Amino acid sequence: MSAAKLLFSTAAYAQLAGDIAAQSDGFEIADVERKRFPDGERYLRLCSSVVDRDVAIVGGTISDADTLELYDLACGASAYGAARITMVIPYFGYSTMERAVKDGEVVTAKARARLLSSVPNAAMGNRVLLVDLHVEGLTHYFERDMHPFHIYAKELIVEAARERGGDDFILACTDAGRAKWVESLASDLGVSVAFVYKRRVSGSKTEVTGVSAHVAGKTVIIYDDMIRTGGSLIGAATAYRDAGAAEIHALCTHGLFTSNALPRLQDSGLFQSLGSTDTHPRSRELASDFLSIYGIAPLLARALEEPR
Q1: Would you call 5 a catalytic residue per the annotation?
Q2: Is 15 left (phi over 0), alpha (psi -120 to 50) or beta?
């Protein structure tokens, strides 16, 4: 396997695959033919030979269709003789259903991990690279001989935080559930940490009752692993503003920004800026003066180059 790694991608992650390939001479972009039959059935053809090649496939689980495209490409690479297969999943979705709360609920995150684990083994094995999982224990959902590796985007978040706050700011989170990770990050940065206290007022609604640290006159940078609707972020930012924060910024690894989340956040007047990596294609599409994007490609390229 001395040849460059053969790098496939799902259609949604073609640009990220290209960015990974641009990081070194160790990657070769593979060609895939795609089309649709009249009934909507998808046609895929691996136009680059995978025989005895180290194959990486970049694709997130941003939808069921994208998940199946990733699965089909991996199955095809195995069937046509890849020496090793690495699925690179920058954003592993389905984290809303990572455990069952009510009787009968389907743990979709586990079901999808099992699906990807069923890709037939290449001669030198299969593995999956995952970035900043919402719940770290999701790696244990992968089965059989699939080897999961959790990659942290901490260095990108550190860079983004330093750009906004320098050496004097407070790193904050939206609730106590992320406090442990944010405390670790704050320790690396050498700054103080804060989180909000919440009280549940109904089965589906919580309200913020206070903040854990003195933030008056300070720059507050809120980190959350992902931003979807922005509701929790707005609630936390409102609490920090009411506690006297001089300015507020928000950072995340996975910027989903569903529906009108981004204009909602910008129009709230709470935030001086947002920052996100490009693990989800939508974040790159929405990049602006307000939303800065930090490329994940160098981290993924490095992870692919490291022996594992």
Answers
A1: no
A2: alpha
Cα(141)–Cα(34) distance, rounded to whole angstroms? Answer: 30
CB-CB contact of 117 with 148 (8 Å): no
Torsion from C-alpha of 233, 96, 154, 307, nearest 10 degrees: -170
Question: Domains of the chain (ranges plus CATH)?
Answer: 5-151+297-305 (3.40.50.2020), 154-277 (3.40.50.2020)
Task: Dump pLDDT digits (tens) for 214-259.
Answer: 889 999 999 999 999 999 899 899 999 999 999 999 999 999 999 8
Instruction: List alpha helices for 192-305, DSSP H.
Output: 231-242, 261-267, 281-285, 297-305
Look at strands 42-46 and 146-151 and give their pairing: unpaired
Q: Which of 5, 110, 198, 218 is catalytic?
A: 198
Continuous segment of H or E residues that includes residue 79: helix 64-79
Residues 221, 170 contacting (CB under 8 angstroms): yes
Going by DSSP bridges, is the β-strand pair 42-46/32-36 parallel, antiparallel, or unpaired?
antiparallel
Per-residue pLDDT tens digits for 251-289: 999 999 998 999 999 999 999 999 999 999 999 999 999
Q: What is the dihedral of CA 66, 70, 73, 75, to 10 degrees?
A: -130
Please tell me the pTM assigned to this model: 0.92
